[in-house]
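Table S2 (text version). Query chain:
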Amino acid sequence: MENGFCHFEKDDFTPERGDIVIYNNIIPKEDKPENSTWCDHMGVVVFCRNDNLMVAEGNTGNKNVSDIISRRRDNTIGCYIRIPKDYIYDGWKIDFKTGKEKIVTFMV
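Corresponding structure-token output:
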């Protein structure tokens, strides 16, 4: 949210291919650790149609398998994350433990 990447359908946002969908308490209570956060599952939007999304997910059905499935666009969706096409992440340059810049060389 801090970077403006988080979007909500209530704000007239329409998900598109490649958006990340964050689900809201989609995992059954008996399969979740006590006091876990509301955002408990995620997927990548393959396409969006009216009331449904086709999404690629891991751990589908809590069975540790990946699948492409249809999900309703309902209150189980917490938000969507859309990273702008021109976004460049360079945080990898900083060592999170020391705060110092890393020296990285790539072999070509």
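Notes on Table S2: The beta strands are 6-7, 20-24, 39-49, 52-57, 67-72, 77-81. The chain has a mean pLDDT of 85.
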